[in-house]
Backbone:
């Protein structure tokens, strides 16, 4: 009998161990790690079997979605067996929903029951629901979705959701806010609504009038800032426990990053100093080493300059490590940024370009770039803030033009609650000249922008635009503007027109002709503060050859801002709004510590005697 009992005990122990082992395996494979790419999860699935294999496959699907490899993710989902357990079915549906919203396709979210999901699943659920409600332009549901996301978001995403929530509420008009139903006990929702009203009614910037002195403009802005600060403080006293307390200092310009509390920092500056990109690298280097002249109160750095055209990236990293470098600033070229991200050196990195490969770096890595896509997003924000409803983009039929159109349209959809931006592509400068010679104008029509590749969809063209954003070079814009006038049969964007014309920094040059200012009168354009708001003292510090070329001035300013970011790198993190007034713009951070810029806006003003411009924001 004892032998029989021992046999049963051994069998039960073995089965128990097997079950525990399975649970451990599922627990290990069931946790999603954003720092791992799809290849990692696919390899784990390849070496597994049974439920563990399915778990790894589902994780691989999530990674593929984050890498925007949607076709591959769909294919892997279709290969899953039919007999999934309850948790796997939920994960499968969530992935299908994430793919659908990324493709702009419908998805029946009622297939999932929100009260039967864990926190991680709930976060994904409400992310999908928010995208669907945004497309349906359901303001009330979007407001509640943001609050649910805040409740279920992982700690590392809390700041992101908080900032996204404020961005949503801050862009709502009074009529849109009235669409939100807040119950008596929904104090947090009421707080967001009240904060939105408070900010809008006390943050109305006055445009500078012709003839106003700098002192008058500064005094007006100072008075308005004080009014906004007092209003926000009153709101804070009414909602002392509201989550938005974390961001109110940024709303009144109080959230600035001071320099790191360290001794002189040793920094390796990785730039191309030879070859075809040497002018870019040398100009940024000049701005970096000159930065202390502009900001003498900030600590100096021990700067080690390394030429990325001289050695492979692995060797440059070894040199930096040998010289006890604490921070790498650079590299500049995109392929080099991709390489250093893959290498993931132990030294933290402030890259001077951006990559969008869907992966998270295993070391601390931030990204700072003068990106046309970021400038397009800023233009969307600026145009929306001026209560425009229907923007038309005029951009070249190039890869860059499509990227700019896509970036603008995505931002417009987010801030305008699903509204579309429209695009019309134009040909090369030779084509424009040929059309101009044949009196062929540009009609004010466009097609909705597709988010997939930035191209226009096959939808029918539309008209009735109240804003036109032109992303083009100076030479292109000198042809596009009169062709727009010709196509409309009247002058566009001269102040008396119902359509406001906006242009990018790409067409703003130091050597603009007086005829250009005449044609572009009242057109608003964006550029960096170092160009638009430069004082006599600042101008005297900029090398003469750089002052004469705005494209070089922007790179020079980038070098200055990179130096200031390096001084604050230890505090730099994702989702920090307006943490620094830089030479390239007001700096914030978005996802994965990507530094974004809010530019300064001015308008061209033609004067018969000379050319000038007037500040508009």
Residues:
């Amino acid at each position: 009998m004892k032998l029989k009992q021992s046999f049963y005990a051994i069998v039960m122990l073995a089965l128990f161990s097997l079950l525990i082992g399975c649970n451990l395996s599922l627990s290990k494979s069931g946790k999603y790690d954003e720092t791992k790419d799809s290849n990692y999860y696919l390899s784990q699935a390849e070496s597994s079997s049974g439920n563990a294999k399915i778990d790894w496959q589902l994780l691989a699907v999530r990674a593929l979605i984050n890498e925007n490899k949607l076709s591959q993710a769909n294919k892997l989902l279709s290969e899953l067996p039919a007999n999934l357990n309850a948790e796997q079915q939920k994960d499968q549906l969530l992935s299908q929903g994430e793919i659908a919203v990324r493709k702009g396709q419908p998805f029946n979210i009622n297939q999932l029951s929100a009260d039967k999901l864990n926190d991680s699943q709930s976060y994904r659920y409400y992310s999908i629901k928010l995208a669907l409600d945004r497309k349906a332009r359901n303001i009330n549901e979007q407001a509640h979705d943001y609050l649910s996301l805040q409740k279920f978001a992982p700690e590392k995403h809390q700041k992101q959701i908080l900032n996204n929530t404020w961005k949503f509420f801050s862009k709502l008009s009074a009529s849109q806010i009235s669409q939100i139903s807040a119950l008596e006990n929904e104090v947090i929702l009421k707080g967001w609504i009240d904060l939105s009203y408070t900010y809008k009614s006390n943050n109305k910037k006055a445009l500078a009038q012709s003839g106003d002195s700098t002192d008058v403009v500064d005094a007006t802005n100072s008075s308005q800032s004080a009014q906004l600060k007092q209003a926000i403080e009153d709101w804070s006293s009414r909602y002392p426990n509201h989550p938005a307390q974390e961001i109110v200092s940024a709303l009144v310009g109080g959230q600035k990053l001071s320099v790191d509390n360290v001794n002189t920092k040793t920094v390796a500056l990785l730039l191309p100093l030879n070859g075809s990109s040497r002018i870019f690298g040398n100009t940024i280097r000049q701005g970096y080493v000159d930065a202390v002249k502009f900001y003498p109160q900030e600590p100096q750095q021990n700067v080690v300059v390394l030429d990325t055209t001289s050695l492979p990236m692995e060797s440059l990293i070894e040199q930096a490590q040998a010289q006890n470098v604490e921070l790498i600033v650079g590299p500049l070229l995109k392929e080099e940024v991709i390489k250093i991200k893959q290498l993931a050196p132990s030294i933290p990195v402030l890259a001077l370009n951006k990559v969008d490969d869907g992966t998270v770096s295993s070391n601390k890595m931030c990204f700072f770039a003068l990106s046309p896509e970021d400038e397009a997003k800023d233009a969307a924000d600026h145009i929306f803030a001026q209560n425009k409803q229907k923007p038309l983009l005029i951009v070249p039929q190039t890869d860059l033009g499509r990227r700019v159109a896509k970036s603008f349209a995505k931002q417009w959809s987010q801030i305008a609650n699903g509204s579309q931006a429209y695009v019309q592509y134009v040909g090369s400068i030779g084509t424009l000249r040929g059309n101009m010679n044949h009196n062929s104008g540009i009609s004010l029509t466009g097609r909705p922008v597709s988010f997939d590749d930035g191209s226009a969809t096959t939808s029918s063209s539309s008209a009735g635009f109240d804003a036109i954003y032109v992303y083009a070079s100076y030479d292109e814009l000198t042809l596009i503007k009169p062709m727009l006038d010709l196509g409309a049969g009247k002058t566009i964007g001269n102040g008396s027109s119902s359509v406001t014309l906006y242009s990018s920094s790409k067409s703003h040059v130091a050597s603009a002709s007086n005829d250009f200012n005449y044609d572009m009168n009242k057109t608003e354009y964006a550029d960096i503060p170092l160009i638009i708001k430069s004082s006599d003292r600042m101008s005297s510090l900029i090398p003469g050859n750089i002052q004469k070329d705005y494209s070089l001035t922007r790179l020079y300013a980038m070098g200055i801002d990179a130096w200031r970011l390096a001084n604050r790198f230890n505090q730099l993190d994702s989702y920090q709004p307006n943490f620094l007034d830089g030479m390239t713009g007001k700096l914030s951070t978005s996802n994965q510590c990507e530094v974004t810029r809010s530019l300064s806006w001015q308008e061209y003003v033609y004067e018969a005697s000379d050319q000038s411009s007037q500040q508009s924001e």
About this structure: The CA atoms of residues 169 and 192 lie 7 Å apart. The longest strand covers residues 265-271. The two ends are 91 Å apart (CA to CA).
